[in-house]
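Trying the structure run again after the queue cleared.
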Amino acid sequence: MQSLRQFLALKKRPYGIRTSLENFCEYADIQVYPLYAIKNALAPDAQVGIPAGPGFTALDFTPARC
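Done. Tokens:
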């Protein structure tokens, strides 16, 4: 995650998204999505998508703080 934070600082981005085998999780500046959720969110008939900002507002769950 150190390299992701360096990338965010270099590109002057407020947050990043990381895919992982762990459950949904949220750090101060990084959102973690499990791989199964990415598959479901990108499906042609998906009812939800990956949100555009912090807080996971487009998905039906409350992220845990890591």
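Helices lie at 2-11, 35-41. Worth checking whether this holds up in the mutant runs.
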